[in-house]
Amino acid sequence: MALPDPQLGLVISYAYLWHREYRAGWDSGRKDRPCVIVLAMRKSSDGGLLVRVAPMTHAAPDDPSVAFEIPLPVKHHLALDAERSWIMLDEINEFVWPGFDLRPIPGAHDRFAYGHLPPILFRQMLERIRAVWQGGRGRLTPRD
Fold it and tell me: With bands split at pLDDT 50, 70 and 90, how would you rate the model's confidence at 46?
């Protein structure tokens, strides 16, 4: 099984741990879900690749300002279902690539990525993430 390079905008299958679950003492996510890589950088201490991912969910957000709806054509491009989905902008998991929670996509035992968000859409999403986090509304959950 070849692992993908952790590129910005790549949508991976990942056992995401919600911040509320982390605070409750959980150490692993309840289910695997698509997540978008929003940061990938070398750690200076050991040279490992530090990755941050934002989760996708079908649950409509309580606060739409911290979510980014994924257009149906993009979901189709990624071979995801046709239900409405959002990328949560105020939640991020951080781990050293590939980590313990990278999962094969459903129905494939040798693929871990659905594909990339279109560049324009990814840039729009990053602008929104930046605003949320600069406003002090982001929550980082360490996974290592």
Answer: confident
Residue at 33 is within a domain: yes
Q: Based on DSSP, count helices (H) and strands (E) in the chain, helices before strands.
A: 3, 8
Q: What's the pLDDT score for residue 115?
A: 97
Integer Cα distance of 97 and 105 in angstroms: 17
pTM of the model: 0.95
* Alpha-carbon distances of 136 from 21, 49, 63, 113, rounded to whole Å: 20, 25, 15, 30
Distance CA 87, CA 68 (A): 5
- Tokens at 52, concatenated: 């941050």
Number of domains in the chain: 1
The domain of 39 spans: 10-142
At residue 64's C-alpha, the angle toward residues 9 and 129, to 5°, is: 35
Assign 48 a pLDDT band (cuts: 50, 70, 90): confident
How far apart CA 23 and CA 141 sit, in angstroms, is 9
pLDDT tens digits, 90-111:
999 999 999 999 999 998 888 9
